[in-house]
Amino acid sequence: MADLPLITPMPMVADCVLPWDGPVSDTVAAIGAARSACGDTFVIDSGDDRYLFLFSPVGLQSFYAVPEQHASKGIADWKMLVRKLPDELFDGRRTLPHELFTRPNVSGYLDALEEAISLQLAELSPGDEIDLFDFTRRLGHRMGLASWGGREILRSARFEELVAALDVLDGSEAFVAPTRMQEVAQSGKAAERAAMATAEQILADSIAARHSPVGDLLDMILERWADAPDAERLTGVARDVILVHIGSMSNLFAALGWSLVHLVQHPDVLARVRTSQDADQDLVTRCVLESTRIGQRSIMLRTVLEPVSIDDGAHTYEVSPGATLATFLPLTNMDSGPGLDRYDPDRWQGPRLVSPPGLPAELVTTFGHGPHTCPARPFSVTAMSRVIERLFDAFDLEALFDDARPRPGQIGGVARAAEPCMVVLRDR
Q: Is the pTM of this model over 0.70?
């Protein structure tokens, strides 16, 4: 093994590996145990990599304050996703997810969003039994593809085939099922490459059938490829759409799933949502933020590119290039203050956490902080809020599950449920 990057002074090294390098049955418990044994700053040496974990308030402020050019979140995210996704999906992209989520663009998504929700609700009838996370995953595909794949794709005869291919290609499996990444590597990503080829062909055929602009985001992506030969252009546009979709939708459906689960579990809050007046008009948004906070399983990683100094309040650490700065949101989101282990949308005032009072902003995270705030936040919050309003306006949802638990092996993103969360739909 090559020499690991230096950290001076050297914190305690936890007896722990990360799940893409070895067996970990419960990631939250394992990293939580490492924190209990070593304190709020410690190192995990896992595989060929060295990770400096930070959990103290000052350490987290340092973590988020390091400039991207010194410690890159983008490179760290890519290193995680490329365990699952074919390298060629990243090559030559002309449209990236963050470019599509400016406020003017988000306002343009609303018609596509409403159409996608209407199509999804039209499939449902009183008496149906559905898994909330299956429902939100399918809806997430519809909402995203309608926004940047062209609304015509929703009525394609090959839409179901496209959804199946995108599910196989889903890069989030790198953190949802990290122990499977060795199997993916051993196969040479054969299933993923086959799924990418299928998705490319379906999207390219749909794109080729568009003969005039309609003023949506697909037109913007098409314009960026206008100078390319036809075959290259269609493949390039299709891959842009695939990468934008994977990058934007993988966690929205899970956050929406927990939002629905929590409202089913808290009928008092649901009753308030249904009768919200002007004084409580942002209650749905607060519900979304609270469910996203609780559902977070993100490991935040930053690949050190230049020597950096990290202050955790007790020591200042000199960290060499090649190391990775890290923190783990389920530990900070749930135990940084009293009551955070409970669901309570009223702890939010607009987008700000106000209860418990006085917490540094970095201790509780929904959509990130500063320059690393998720660019899809306005779209995501709007989309989830609108789904909640329309679904619960159409149906009562009777829970067929006793409890809902996150998958214990997940490390990254918003939690997926360990078991189906079935409900039966009742007419209102």
A: yes
